[in-house]
Amino acid sequence: MGFRKSDYESYDYSQFWEDNKRLYEDRAERLALRRLLAGVDRDNKLFFDIGCGYGRLFNEYKDFGTIVLIDYSIKNLRNAKNKIENFLKNDPEKLSTIHFIAADATSLPVKSNCADVILTVRMVHHLDNPEKYFTEVERILRNRGLYFLEFANKRNLKNILRFTTGRMDTSPFNLIPSQIGETILNFHPKYIVNLLKRRNFTVKKIISVSNFRLSLLKKFPGTKTLIFLEKIYQKLFSFALFGPSVFLKSVLSGPEPEGTTGNKKMVLEDILICTSCRKDSLLFNKNKITCRNCGSIFINENGIYNFKIK
Ligand SMILES: C[S@@+](CC[C@H](N)C(=O)[O-])C[C@H]1O[C@@H](n2cnc3c(N)ncnc32)[C@H](O)[C@@H]1O
Question: Residue 74 sits in a domain of what CATH number?
């Protein structure tokens, strides 16, 4: 299975962001995401946030026609659902177009060629088999579909300085992903770009993010000034890719598909397949989904469909 040991069931991930210590990183990521998503057609489009956590970035993509939030952690999904229900408490119609699925990103319960847009932020560093996840992204995305990805950049300025002054052994320049502690992988941008190219993606834009991530700078000159500088840096100096985090926009090549699969009324029956036998043979009941082919049962726990393979 692709899930590394980092366990999001036993701690509240929302705390990671909500104590204001990472306000700068949150703002910097939103800046990049807004730039990448600018001009993307949202009407009638089927959007996936894979590794959505507690739905931190939901308001950046809330206008897409149908939204599917996928995560391995039921706890994070529950928090995402609560947050989004609260946010959309006056708009039940919109809420009915948003779906919550517990699943492993390396084995998605999603039909092939159906997603218009896929987003993954701060998730690939947790996978022990990122290749398997990228194969799934290629499979579920339609031709000309858009893929937005954030990954941790091993070739960042801090690592380069530490390596060249002998304070770090692992080279930030080789393409092999480097392991940080037990659970985190950092990637060389070229490794990710090559991997995407091999899978018929064309990278359209790439942004260096959280370029001033230093505790000292957060104290002085402070987050407001850092964000001002970050905005300029992201626009002018992203080519150097020195930031600890990289956001990119890519498009899956291939002939334009006929018709549009994404439409506002798209329901889970149009989207899901069985994670056990990979067949499009699910029978939907109120509280459970049964696979007519292999008999697997997937439970709906208060609006969260559990497609994790036991
Ligand atoms: C650092 S959080 C990022 C959450 C969110 N994208 C954000 O930026 O706020 C990583 C998330 O990836 C999820 N995750 C890790 N491995 C996964 C896997 N194999 N399949 C699905 N989700 C996974 C975790 O449960 C966690 O919610």
Answer: 3.40.50.150
The alpha carbon of 102 and the centre of ligand 1 are apart by a number of angstroms equal to 11
Closest CA to 159 of 148, 150, 149, 170: 170
With 0-12 / 13-18 / 19 or more C-beta atoms within 10 angstroms meaning exposed / middle / buried, residue 251 is middle
pLDDT digit string, tens, across residues 173-201: 999 999 888 778 999 999 999 999 999 99
Distance from the alpha carbon of residue 121 to the mean position of ligand 1, in angstroms:
8
Supply the residue whose CA is at minimum distance from atom 27 of ligand 1.
Answer: 53
Residue nearest to atom 19 of ligand 1 (CA): 3
Residue 187 lies in a domain: yes
Tell me if the pTM is above 0.90: yes
What is the per-residue pLDDT for 8?
86
Q: Are 225 and 130 in contact (CB under 8 A)?
A: no
Number of structural domains in the chain: 1
Output the CA–CA distances (angstroms, integers) from residue 283 to 97, 159, 277, in the order listed.
Answer: 20, 51, 14
Q: Would residue 302 count as lying in a domain?
A: no
Beta bridge partners of 301: 304
If we measure between CA atoms, which residue out of 38, 65, 40, 37 comes closest to residue 260?
65
Residues 6+ apart with CB under 8 A from 19: none
Range of the domain at 84: 13-253
